[in-house]
Amino acid sequence: MTNAPAPRPQPVRPFDEDQERLGPPPPAAADDGFRSYLQALHPRMLLAMGDGMPIVIKQLVQLLFLLCWPFWAVGGLVVGVIYYWVLYPVLWVLFWPVRALFGDKKTTAEPTDGTVSG
């Protein structure tokens, strides 16, 4: 007879009526930042934040998320526009010396014997 502890039972995920009705949230794909930024603004992603909570708390959290979602979406789009079309070009101009100094060094110099490589 050993004193080894019994293995823990694996938790079974409870039935979720929202998963049944809405389907699973879209998977996080590894594509460009703008597309994933827009996917984060989708209400299904906000509803998925309530998963794993007791049902009353989950419903309260989902209600609050849905009430604030229009402000979240408009604010997210405004911040996205400010960053991608205003702040990013300003930072691009401000940091051009750094890019020029540490820029792409992939270009090869011409050979010293005067021949041109093909």
Name the poorly predicted regions: none
Task: Give the helix level as a range of percent.
Answer: 55-70%
- Structural shape: flat
Q: CA-to-CA gap between the ends?
A: 78 Å
Query: What is the average per-residue confidence, as pLDDT, rounded to a whole number?
Result: 75
From the alpha-carbon coordinates, what is the Rg to the nearest angstrom? 26 Å
Which class of secondary structure composition applies to the elements? mainly alpha
Helix and strand succession? Answer: HHHHH
Number of strands: 0
β-strand amount: under 5%
For the largest beta-sheet, the strand count, sense and barrel status come to: none
What does this structure look like?
This protein is mainly alpha-helical and 118 residues long. It has a domain at 32-101. Helices cover 57% and strands 0% of the residues. It has five helices and no strands. The mean pLDDT is 75.
Describe the structure using short key phrases:
118 residues, flat, mainly alpha, 5 helices
Helices and strands in order:
Blueprint (H helix, E strand, L loop, with lengths): L16 H6 L10 H8 L2 H6 L6 H40 L1 H7 L16
In short:
The protein has 118 residues and is an all-alpha fold. Helix content is 57%, strand content 0%.
